[in-house]
Amino acid sequence: MRLNAPTEQDTEALGGRLARALPPQAPQVLQVQLHGDLGAGKTTLARGFLRALGYTDAVRSPTYTLVETYVFGALTVVHADLFRLQDPRELEGLGLRDLSVPGHVWLIEWPERAGSWLPPADLEVTLTAGAAAHAVRIQAPTATGRQWLSRSMS
Known about the structure:
This protein has three helices and seven strands, in the order E-H-E-H-E-E-E-E-E-H. It has helices at 8-20, 42-52, 143-152; strands at 2-5, 30-35, 67-72, 75-81, 104-109, 123-128, 134-139.
């Protein structure tokens, strides 16, 4: 699926649509991989996702902390920014394995830095900054992801 997001608010709204369409609790962690250059809107999309779930404080890219968790009752959102990783083996120290449980949704910025360490994504969102709008491409490699994407666009 391809769309345009002319404004920051449009990118944030897309994140909100994805959050509101979360599938029922799956037996695995749900994962959204966010691809794009610096300034493409990855954190903006994550902010919209978190806001739609009720988070009202500031949402910043976890570039320096690497991982931030947000708990919403039985749902936990893990927002990770892997930009600063030099080697996929550095993921071991982040504790992501401990956060790979049902009821968790991962929003992973710069997933390519993880090599093959991450499980397959349910949704892959690629954001590309353009002069008039950000281009957004969403792919759903898993059955859960396809259902999720379909629900978010209806």
